[in-house]
């Protein structure tokens, strides 16, 4: 009986030692895991600190970006105002020559000047010096402006246009109504596209609202004047084309042909 109990005691003692060994191993594992957890916790805290710093930096950067955007928008607005101001203040000048007749009915060549003011309300005015423009001239100026705007695709309703006719001779010259319409159309197209017309090419002809070139009077005298002026070419309405031994006379039907000869 005692032997049996001793055997059981030894067995139980061995089992206890084994359990205590396992408990010790588990305790050590727990200690190791807790150490690792403490290290990980420390790393997490460090990462959280770094994250907080990065978030603070991101907020500052966002504020800087918003400030820079505001500055850029303000500068863009200032630049747009400057561009608009320059465009408004811009004046385009075009010089050309027209054909008319003097008091004796002879043809004459006289200077014409065009000024386009970048900021306006669509006013079109005529300034003359020693020139008599007859009925229909102002309507021809308005038609020339409308045709030039249609041809170029550039509005004139927000601009002011001034046409100046200058006669430096002693006598009075006459512009017979709309006969300078084609020449004024060429000038206005030149001004809107910032070009200068070829003064070696003179033109006489009316301008219609559809851009076609119409009949004029006094062609023989105007051909004399153009030749004496030294022009290389005289443009006339296609239906009135004629031959002249002193100067090349070319018939034109519409504004496209007119521009091709006068502006190239």
Fold and architecture overview:
The chain is of the alpha/beta class and 264 residues long. It has two domains: 1-89; 92-262, Ribosomal Protein S5, domain 2 (2-Layer Sandwich), CATH 3.30.230. The chain has helices spanning 2-89, 137-152, 181-192, 219-229, 255-262, and strands spanning 91-102, 107-117, 124-129, 131-133, 160-166, 173-175, 201-203, 206-207, 213-214, 233-237, 248-252. It has a six-stranded mixed beta sheet, sandwiched between helices. A three-stranded parallel beta sheet has the order 7-10-11, with helices on both faces. Helix 3 (181-192) packs across helix 5 (255-262). 27% of the residues are buried. The model has no long low-confidence stretch (mean pLDDT 87).
């Amino acid at each position: 009986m005692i032997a049996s109990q001793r055997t059981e005691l030894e067995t139980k003692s061995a089992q206890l030692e084994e359990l205590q060994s396992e408990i010790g191993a588990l305790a050590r594992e727990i200690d190791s895991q807790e150490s690792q957890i403490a290290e990980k916790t420390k790393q997490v805290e460090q990462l959280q600190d770094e994250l907080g710093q990065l978030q603070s930096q991101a907020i500052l950067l966002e504020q800087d970006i918003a400030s820079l955007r505001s500055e850029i928008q303000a500068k863009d607005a200032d630049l747009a105002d400057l561009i608009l101001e320059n465009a408004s203040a811009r004046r385009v000048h075009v010089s050309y020559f027209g054909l008319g007749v003097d008091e004796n009915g002879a043809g004459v060549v006289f200077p014409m000047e065009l000024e386009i003011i970048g900021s306006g309300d669509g006013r079109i005015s005529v300034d003359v010096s020693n020139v008599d423009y007859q009925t229909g001239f102002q309507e021809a100026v308005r038609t020339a402006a409308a045709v030039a705007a249609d041809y170029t695709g550039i509005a004139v309703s927000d601009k002011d246009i001034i046409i100046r006719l200058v006669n430096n001779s002693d006598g009075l010259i006459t512009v017979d109504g709309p006969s300078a319409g084609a020449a004024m159309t060429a000038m206005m197209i030149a001004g809107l596209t910032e070009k200068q017309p070829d003064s070696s090419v003179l033109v006489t002809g009316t301008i219609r609202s559809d851009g076609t070139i119409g009949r004029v009077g006094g062609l023989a005298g105007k051909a004399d004047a153009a030749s004496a002026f030294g022009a290389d070419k005289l443009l006339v309405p296609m239906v009135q084309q004629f031959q002249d031994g002193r100067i090349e006379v070319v018939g034109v039907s519409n504004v496209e042909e007119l521009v091709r000869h006068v502006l190239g």
